[in-house]
Amino acid sequence: MTAPISILVADDEPLARDRLTTLLAGHPELSVIAECGDGEEAAARMVSDRPDLAFLDVQMPELDGFGALEAAAPWHVPEVVFVTAYDAYALRAFEAGAIDYLLKPFDRPRFERALTRALARLASPGREAEVRALLARVAADRGTPERLAIRVGRRIRFVEVSAIEWIEAAGNYARLRAGGATHLLRERMRELERRLDPRLFVRIHRSFIVNVGAITALEPTTHGEFQVSLTDGTKLTSSRTFSERLRQLGRC
Asked: Looking at residue 252, what is its pLDDT?
């Protein structure tokens, strides 16, 4: 017997969640495995429960639907139908390459069309590449993140980017140092550097990125490098390859 297709429903309005789950209940081949009231919970449940398909409200507390999808992406990417009450967000979801979007209030025929498209996508080969392309467009549209999602067991913890003092490479991971705590992010330094605001963060070594605001002193060495002192007492040494930005900071 074929396992049912698993569904996550995320909307901060209980009535909207009830509407979706009622419509989905008419399909015995589907199983709603998670109902979420905010974006952070939706991201965590996408990681822990690994649904095949997610209906994501665009505007939710903590994280919006785009942010929830992006936060879960390193670990699990479901197919997505965005749900919104605003035309502008619907257009953005469509341009981002989502399977479909539902503009509230929607009727049963409109829901069924979206569901049919979603089920067809799930059955098609190459769906992973399509969803990854969607994520790339979402990330490009969102710009630099305000928070990073860290997986801790089956949970997701969010770290404010502005609180990060420095970052250290750890193979396929990055160690984030923030407020005396260390968080392990599954992302390579090159990818993470591209996502961070270059006005706030500077790469000083192939193994280190530092928050410009956390730098308390720069001390030149005899080899064209710098010893970089940070607010938490850490001292890091830059490499000549990445020292030009530090020289610019020293002239500010």
From this structure: 46
Fold of 5-142: Rossmann fold (3.40.50)
The alpha-helical segments, DSSP class H, found in the chain are 14-24, 39-49, 65-72, 87-96, 108-123, 127-142, 189-195, 244-250
pTM score, whole prediction: 0.66
Half-sphere exposure of 137 (CA within 13 A, CB side): 13
Contact yes or no for 58/12 (Cβ under 8 A): no
What pLDDT sits at residue 250? Answer: 61
* Tokens describing residue 212: 């410009």
Are the C-beta atoms of residues 200 and 213 closer than 8 Å to each other? yes
Q: What is the pLDDT of residues 96-136, one digit of tens each?
A: 556 677 888 899 999 999 999 889 888 876 666 666 666 66
Domain 159-250: which CATH class? mainly beta
Domain boundaries, given as residue ranges, for the chain: 5-142, 159-250
